[in-house]
Amino acid sequence: MTDQSKNELRQRLDALVGQPISDGQPVKAPDPVNAAMIRHWAYALGDMNPAYLDTEWAKQSRYGDLVSPPVMLQSWTMAPPKLAGIRERGGVPVEIKNNPLQFLADAGYTGTVATNSEFEIERYPRVGDEITAETVFETISDEKKTAMGSGFFVTWITTYRDQSGEIIGRQRFRTLRFKPGS
What we know:
The chain is α+β, with helices and mostly antiparallel strands. The protein has helices at residues 3-16, 35-45, 50-53, 55-60, 73-77, 102-106, and strands at 27-28, 111-121, 132-140, 144-145, 149-161, 167-180. Residues 30-168 form the FAS1-like dehydratase domain.
């Protein structure tokens, strides 16, 4: 890759920072926070916290009613998976109409691996909350040489809000977009 094409690639990456990762932002959860989904989550993960499961206990607690596990925040706004064509999409469970990072794949950075996710919780989601999520690109590193190949660490941040616009929490999600074998 020439210095000019590297500079152009860097400029395109820098232009993404602060921009939404997709159209249709913010995304609204299909259902309000509800006891049934909280119960399913709690049992699936073996987290029997009475704040999630026992209405009477929760009403006497500092929460005043049932709350959702805070790391369940992402699940409230997740799009339903589309299984048809999932293999052709490289295992991605949703269709992406306008992939803002397609130019990286076109430049040979076809590998993707999730590296980490971090949550900041402002408060526990409450039963009845109607959650929205807005996701923007937060940072994109300089090109790094890794065991997977040379690539860029792409971090986006999702801000979760309730029906009043109050921030419930944030999630940073980082992936490495790399050239396999480079």
